[in-house]
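Most newcomers find our protein records easier to grasp once they have seen one. Read left to right, the backbone structure tokens trace the chain's path through space. Once this layout is familiar, the rest of the handout is easier to follow. The record below serves as our worked example for the rest of this section:


***
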Amino acid sequence: MKESNMKTITLGMVQHHCNDDSNNNLDKSIAGIRKAAAQGANLVLLQELHNSLYFCQTESPDNFRHAESIPGPSTETFATLSAELDIVIVASLFERRSAGLYHNTAVILDGKRGIVGQYRKMHIPDDPGYYEKYYFTPGDAESAAEAFQPIDTSVGRLGVLVCWDQWFPEAARLMALAGAELLLYPTAIGWDEHDDQAEQARQQEAWLTIQRAHAIANGIPVAACNRTGVETAAGAASTSRIHFWGSSFIAGPQGEIIAQANSDEETVLVASLNLSRTEAVRQYWPYLRDRRIDAYADLLRRYRD
């Protein structure tokens, strides 16, 4: 495959442990961003809810103290850093939109331009250890185009989604149809330590496979930045904890793994991406051309009885 008018970016991702000291967590993110920029990254993706422990393991009103406004203290810190380093940063925050209204929100900061966009997580899980519906309201929009809208930045058009969104091909497709050049997923996912090794392996492989499939089906790169380490949220029973499996990765438009972190290590992962490959890949595999949009009306139904 030949590519013309080559467009490249260098993507960095900061995978780290979190504890109950928000300042310590913030310092880790900042240090990772600086390290990635020093290695040439002009775009840095942080993991989901990187300022705190993953508090959604329990349902407690005390955890709303982690929420903050956007703009707010964290976005001010990341905006200053983004401007200093002249890079794009994708941060992940627990947003207090109004009294009693909260979101799981990714914020995109672009150098001296400051905040250039945000995405409020649309798919909200409610499973053992992941009680997110207690805390987060889904992003609201009048149409799918508004809900899954890429953000234009100095490095390209970014399709930013968050964690549980990564399991839904519809979200990835809509971002691609709106012109996203790259899909980015801040993530917090791991193992229940009561599951045996075979089940843990199946879960992790499914996580990797579904996202590589998004890359293939849409002909664009995909990157996921996941937490690492074992966490027990404040107030959780000692038997209720998550072993986050790390394994942050970058995949190319044919699903090929370009770079991947280990499961249990704090890592700054940096790799270059040739965004112009999308044109060549889609010429050989023209999925968008051959979609039967005249026959997909039932996708708007919950289930076909």
